[in-house]
Design brief:
The protein has 145 residues and is an all-alpha fold. The chain has one domain: Farnesyl Diphosphate Synthase, CATH 1.10.600. The chain has 7 helices and no strands. α2 runs parallel beside α6 and α4 packs across α5.
Length: 145
């Protein structure tokens, strides 16, 4: 495989889109765990809430829109840009299959992250005990409106 493939804009954008999506999945599904149980402040939903001065539901919708945009970008690259890249480099069918397999691995990785991050409150309480900030609340210092 030519090294230029891995350094190309489409290939790097594909990986960055997948990574962005993974981070956003984590922040959406771990919000309660991070904010309510751990007092974390580095969560995209909370950052959006604080930046825009909005409530949790609005912040969540904004982050979900960002995540959907990154998924669309990933799909566009995989479906439209990579085939052009393959043609530009005159890749063999075998090389194309290897790179297509890598796209599938990234899709499977994202699916695995999505499944892994499904925190539910009983598991949180069992692991962490009751929220130190009270049920359903985040510490006042974290949520500033």
């Amino acid at each position: 495989m030519p090294e230029e493939i891995y350094a190309s804009g489409p290939f790097r954008s594909l990986e960055k889109s997948a990574a962005d999506c993974a981070y956003l999945i984590n922040d959406v599904f771990s919000y309660q765990k991070e904010i309510e149980f751990e007092g974390e402040v580095h969560n995209a939903v909370l950052v959006v809430q604080n930046f825009f001065g909005c409530d949790y539901s609005t912040g969540l919708r904004i982050v979900a829109d960002m995540m959907a945009g990154r998924v669309r970008r990933f799909q566009h690259i995989a479906e439209r840009e990579l085939p052009v890249l393959y043609d530009d480099f005159g890749l063999s069918d075998e090389a194309r299959a290897i790179l297509d397999g890598y796209v599938t691995e990234l899709e499977n990785w994202l699916s695995g992250i999505l499944v892994w991050h499904r925190y539910i409150k009983p598991d949180l309480v069992r692991h962490h005990g009751p929220s130190p900030f009270g049920p359903g609340s985040a510490p006042a210092r974290l949520v500033q409106h």
